[in-house]
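Person: Please work through this fold.
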Amino acid sequence: MFALILPLFFVAFVISVTWVSYKLGTTKSNNAKLCAIFGFVLAFLPPLAVIYLVVLLLKNDTSIA
């Protein structure tokens, strides 16, 4: 049972980090897809993924020109 739950949590974590990175990237940067790709890659290293999300969250919003 545990062998099934742990991979499911990991997959859910990767999907959620990627989605949150994309959503934050739409307001915090000019390239949301690149933010999502970085989030996806860093999701495989959970401490770095959390640090990345915090940095992205604290970044100032970009102005739409």
About this structure: The radius of gyration is 13 Å. The chain has a mean pLDDT of 93. The CA atoms of residues 5 and 53 lie 24 Å apart.
